[in-house]
Automatic annotation (TrEMBL):
UniProt keywords, alphabetically: Cell membrane, Disulfide bond, Glycoprotein, Immunoglobulin domain, Membrane, Receptor, Signal, Transmembrane, Transmembrane helix
Name listed for the protein in its UniProt record: Ig-like domain-containing protein
Tree of life domain: Eukaryota
GO cellular component, one term: external side of plasma membrane
Principal subcellular localisation of the protein: membrane
Subcellular location: Cell membrane
Residue ranges of every copy of the Ig-like domain listed in the record: 17-97
Membrane topology qualifier: Single-pass type I membrane protein
PANTHER family named in the record: T-LYMPHOCYTE ACTIVATION ANTIGEN, T-LYMPHOCYTE ACTIVATION ANTIGEN CD86
GO biological process: one example: negative regulation of T cell proliferation
Amino acid sequence: VFIHLSLSSLTLFPNFSNVTLRCRAPSNNIIVVEWSRADLGKECVLMYRDELFVPDDQHPSFKNRVDLQDRQMKDGDVSLILKNVMISDTGTYECRVFRKTNRRKRAHLKTPPITSRSFLVLLLLLLGVNLELIL
């Protein structure tokens, strides 16, 4: 799944600190979840393997700032919580899920990127803004 996060509107909402990047996968036998951003090279945003975080290849700017929304990954929820969001977090994020199977197989999920308008509406909803007054 590719998700584009545009944070230029953060200057309008300085109290906004966390964002959830949603990703869902088939819920059975998930052994690895990897969140990455193309511009980070080989370093990742988050690697979760066998119920443990793997910090070895994590980009330093994400240390202690990311978590899975549900570490048990119930119903295939592998959404990422990004804490203390900064303008430098802008980018296209990729969620990759690897499942335990009898044969080698790679699951790669793709969805269209979130548009700036969708992100702004989501941001306003998270902030509790009454959209009826705006729309």
